[in-house]
Amino acid sequence: MRRLALCLLVIAACGGDDAAAPIDAPMRQTTFGGDRPVTLQVPSDFDATKTYPLLIILHGYGANAFLQQGYFKLNDAATARQMLILVPDGTLDSGGSQFWNSGPECCDFGGIAPDDVGYIGGMIDDVKAAWPVASVALLGHSNGAFMAYRMACERADVVDAIAGLAGHASSLPCTPSRPVSVLHIHGTGDATVPYETGVFGGVQSPGAVDSVTLWATKNGCTGARAAAGMKDLDANQAGAESTAEATAGCPAGGAADLWTIPDGSHIPPLAATFPDDLTAWLAAH
């Protein structure tokens, strides 16, 4: 299938945001990204004597920044969770869909070849130069998850952790300069980006399990993956339905974890506890 329907369709993406800089930081740059400008979301009670984690949210193919942040239930996260947040938009293709050039799997179907590693990496460098950044994490869905994996490969010098829903590790050559913590989230019922290994986007692509195993090896983990509790990730399934697994023997800053949603779709309705579980994992890694 040449063009993949990775769009977010109808999402409750409304709610407040923290895009405006607080009064006590009026001289700091808040717009980044050059010809694809993004406003940095800053805690309303920003304190220049503290450092903050920087979270970059990457949308799926055909979606956009606003919808993706709402889907992840992180509209108010800058203040509520004390983060600096960037939510950029990808490049518009000939069909009117925004995408990230994450590699041969997805989703530069028109061969536009934007340098998204340079674009996202440049924003990270510029934000770190202007704001007190403690750590950098990327969170992506689908095409955005593929892109997060690519950034972990090519900009491990600045990316500390990634979390991706319904995407695979990049099939491109990958030699990260240091360990990067990886959280892979995937539904076994995903019909768009399958949970299992197989041909995707015309190339052999690792599935969820192989993506985590691959990164466990890259990070130098010495143990096997083992059960690490249950998570309530899917709002349509009662209770804590999803299995969490963590790889043992990983170095500090080099986790390789897998959260599996049984029968979960490509765009599972995320439970209200998802932001808590996600930000707790990021804080721990």
Largest sheet: 8 strands, mixed
CATH architecture descriptor text: 3-Layer(aba) Sandwich
Q: How many domains?
A: 1
Number of E-type strands: 14
Spell out the CATH superfamily.
Alpha/Beta hydrolase fold, catalytic domain
Uncertain stretches of 5 or more adjacent residues: 1-21
> N-to-C SSE series?
EEEHHEEEHEHEEEEHEEEH
What's the overall average pLDDT, rounded? 91
For the termini, the CA-CA separation is 36 Å
- CATH hierarchy, class: Alpha Beta
Count of helical regions: 6
Q: How would you classify the helix and strand content by structural class?
A: alpha/beta
CATH topology: Rossmann fold
Please provide a written account of the structure.
By secondary structure, the protein is of the alpha/beta class. It has one domain (31-192, 199-284): Alpha/Beta hydrolase fold, catalytic domain (Rossmann fold, 3-Layer(aba) Sandwich), CATH 3.40.50.1820. It has six helices and 14 strands. Strands 4-3-7-8-9-14-13-12 form an eight-stranded mixed sheet, sandwiched between helices. α3 crosses α4 (143-154). The longest helix has 15 residues, at 116-130. The termini are far apart. The model is unreliable at 1-21 (pLDDT under 50).
